């Protein structure tokens, strides 16, 4: 039977590529979105991938949404916690709202996404947990104290779950994308973006598909011995 994968933020940007890659690999895919109904409808029309609307920052919405996905598609054995937002500002200008929004989506949202799925993975003795962190969780970034804090925190979640899940056949791994050609990066002022590209030895932004292929690799049953690891896919911009 086809495995079922949940991809949060799975209708746009890196998440859309991940959803498509997993579908091409034979998974049943549920892709979530927070608000952009139009983009989600267009995505389903184009790909045939099921979409579900909920806010990952809400535990109750996440739990109810996951129950619906499991009732319709079957138990989720692969979860890709990808949904993320930015609210960039230099620290002296960062508001508590900007801090809390990013923490709610990028950090608490990862808890909310994995926690309701975890008991089923333990029972079935199989699971693949993949968290999309960021290069900026590894190195920090000007104007991203909030975002960098969440992405570093995500690595802590992964390393802890790797230890807890191992005896149940569950792996937990992270991917730290560098700067990828998505709306999020295109929203960075052009001058700043150009200066960032100048720091990437590969000399270009990454493509969302390059991250999706990392997810496919980690999700495979054959990747059972990769646990607690971080794949840095950043064109050589930063080495850990
Ligand atoms: N390093 C050093 N200085 C920087 C800088 C950087 N990366 N970015 C901006 N600055 C400087 C500016 O040159 C400017 O300096 P001056 O005052 O001397 O001209 C100053 O900081 C900006 O100060 P402002 O008070 O004008 O800043 P602002 O309130 O207008 O905010 C900003 C502007 C939000 C910082 C904007 O520059 C920005 O968006 N920067 C990009 C931040 C970034 O890289 N975000 C990553 C988004 S992509 C992502 O997050 C995906 C991923 O995982 C990789």
Automatic annotation (TrEMBL):
Domain Ketoreductase: from-to ranges: 3-178
CDD domains in the cross-refs: BKR_SDR_c (cd05333)
Gene Ontology CC annotations of this record: cytoplasm
Keywords carried by this UniProt record: Oxidoreductase
Domain of life: Bacteria
GO molecular function annotations of the record: acetoacetyl-CoA reductase activity
Family according to the record: Belongs to the short-chain dehydrogenases/reductases (SDR) family.
Annotated protein name in UniProt: 3-oxoacyl-[acyl-carrier-protein] reductase
A biological process from GO: monocarboxylic acid metabolic process
